[in-house]
Amino acid sequence: IVIAIILVIQFFENPILDSIGYILVIVAIFCVLTVTREYLRARKYKIPSGEIQVNIDENSQETEDLDKHPLNNITEPIFKIGFVGDIMKMNKFELRFNQEVIDFFKGVDIIVGNLEGIVSQKKGPIPKQSHADPPILTSLKTILTNRTKWLLCLSNNHSIDFSNKDFHESLDKIRNDPQFDVFGRNDVPNVFVKGIPINIYTATEWSNEKNWDCISKYNHNAVNVIYEETLQISVDKAFEVAMQWLTSQHKAKIKKSTHPTFIEAKQGTMMANTGHDPNWKKRIRINFYDLNNSKILIRVEASPLSRNILRVEKLKQSWYNGLFSQLFTLLRTIEETSPPEVLSKKVDGKKHCSNCGKKIEKTTTICPYCGIDIV
């Protein structure tokens, strides 16, 4: 269609149409490149039928890049779990399952899905997620069989789009239906299914309303990285240097500061999925403790703002070598030494003649060296 429009525009000599034609050419080129890229990626990462490809361990001496293993022969499972992604309200469209989707989930015991927002008749701006019932719960039931139930996750960035009260009302409405179970409230972040040792856990990293009063949140304490150093420097100067250093870092923003004891900032971008990059997104907290003898303790705490943290020790080393060592090195270069001892002047009761400069007694009225009167 775009190409046809471009060809039609060529028949008219009009600068505005020419500009539109150039824009359409750029759009067409972009679309072709995008489709080609996705096609090549699909071919590259396609999993051959009946087998999976597993990366060789980094320390392996094998010469082949990939090792192929056939899928395990699966006997009749004890319990089947199906998963779907986000269930969202899309303008005025109603949820309807294609028959292929219904067939795909036949035979499962439970379907886990992420219900974005709440079940309520409340209306709100387009970004806020509110599903009317009917039809949402009624539509979700169309995929179920007699042996299947829904397990809906209620911990996500849209959970508190309206209020804590609306969240709890929605949770009770869903839970009162025998074909639905829910989890994701902060005091019920996980569920055990049918007494079988299958524990399903949920939490969210984001909340549009910055509110985690009701929903479970990811906790990064397990990968909280701490660096400490004691320096001979005033706490005011250390605070000032740390503020200047943070503001000069890539993608760093000061979120909170209390002079001269505390700084909190966020820094970095999601450039990798393992946290090896020193600039990987993180929360930084710096505390300054004033000690005796003009010394201070500087404590830097950093925690990653992501769920997928691999090789924590490498992350710690990378963050220190590539980032926080710069701060400590900078502070050490201006580290204060003890001020030099000032010698006291001894008062000996003598003065100097203003004419010859010789030392004389303070009570002298005539200089014994040059004979001049002392004023």
UniProtKB/TrEMBL annotation:
This is Uncharacterized protein. Residues 83-214 form the Capsule synthesis protein CapA domain. It comes from marine sediment metagenome. Residues 352-371 form the Zinc-ribbon domain. The keyword Acyltransferase does not apply. The chain crosses the membrane at residues 20-40. Keywords: Membrane, Transmembrane, Transmembrane helix. Signal peptide: none annotated.
